[in-house]
Amino acid sequence: MSVKKRRAVFQLYIRLRDIEPAIWRRIQVWEDTKLPQLHRILQMLFNWEDYHLHDFVVERRVYSVPDPDDDFNERKVIDEKGVPLNRIIDRVGDTFVYAYDFGDDWQHDILLDAILLPEPDTFYPRCIAGARNGPPEDAGGPCGYANYLEALSDPGHEEHENMLAWRGPFDPEEFPLDRINASLKRTFYRRPAAKRAAPTGDPNPAGDRLAKFMLTALQGGPTPDVPKKRIAPGTTLPLELTDRERDLILKHSFAEEDLTRRLRVVPPPGQPAVVRYTMDELDDLAGYVASESNHAKDRKLHKEWEAIYVKIAALLESYTDGQE
């Protein structure tokens, strides 16, 4: 009898290059964190605002979001979408680089510090340690940041008032650990699908079983296994959305362009939008929707986000592509 491998946690040590005293973070993430998710995590760790391009450099391989100009510039890029962290590093001591803003050229050296078993009742990703504040966006790289701090700390400096007006007060020694972890949890927390309301009125028997499963879970009762249809990895599934649901995701969520681009196709009048996503894409979209639901400011809006999440959860509970 085979033993199922437990999902591991990777502990990463990240340090901004060419900055002294060091600006660094130590974080713990799931081993199969996708690179686009890791990009979002790193942005939060250092207060970046995601205005610029980025890439991950592993030895001679470059992972990023491909651009049509890459061929013209002879820049060979591997699409980062769907690539898990444990595909590019898998041993303690492995290193890679996260580069952000190719103009300012912020280089983040990343070390796989440890491989751990997850702790009970612990949320991942989480930041466990670090030092000093992340530089402001567009500070000009390590050299520009040093000049910025010099001007900001000296009221007599000719650029002091300009720098103060640009970003306001700034404490380079602050390490906002609690704020970082609150942002991580707000972005990546996903309520279990079993605690969501069940979709109703589905004439499909499989849909009926799923609805009963979710309703039973919602009421706190025992939940039987729901049969899942096996599909090939990369298969797309149809997600049906109303005009209002499309509008919410497009205008009021932080979902990435890869997920929202296809929502911009307007369906014929009176017809719902049917958008096709892979299991991985649905899982990512569910995270964004859950985040909006958790932080909706009124009950009506919360219910609207809940309804979208239930649709996505129903698809995720109905199929499996063989990936954990």
Question: What this model shows, in words?
Answer:
This protein is an alpha+beta fold and 324 residues long. It has two domains: 180 residues, Structural Genomics Hypothetical 15.5 Kd Protein In mrcA-pckA Intergenic Region, Chain A (Roll), CATH 3.10.290; 128 residues, no CATH class. It is 36% helix and 19% strand. It is built from eleven helices and twelve strands. An eight-stranded mixed sheet has the order 5-4-3-6-7-1-2-8, covered by helices on one side. β3 and β4 form a beta hairpin. α4 crosses α5. The radius of gyration is 22 Å and the shape is globular. It starts with 8 loop residues before the first strand and ends with a strand.
What kind of sheet is the major sheet? Answer: 8 strands, mixed
* Rg over C-alpha atoms, rounded to the nearest angstrom: 22 Å
Strand ordering within the main sheet = 5-4-3-6-7-1-2-8
CATH topology of the largest domain: Structural Genomics Hypothetical 15.5 Kd Protein In mrcA-pckA Intergenic Region, Chain A
Helical residues, percent: 25-40%
Average pLDDT works out at 84
Distinct helical segment count: 11
Oligomer: single chain
Examine the secondary-structure arrangement and name the CATH architecture of the largest domain.
Roll
In one word, what is the shape? globular
The number of domains is 2
CATH structural class of the largest domain: Alpha Beta
Contiguous uncertain segments of 5+ residues: 193-224
Number of strands: 12
N-to-C span: 19 Å
Q: What's the SSE pattern?
A: EEHEEHEHEEEHHHHEEHHEHHE
What would CATH call the homologous superfamily of the largest domain?
A: MM3350-like
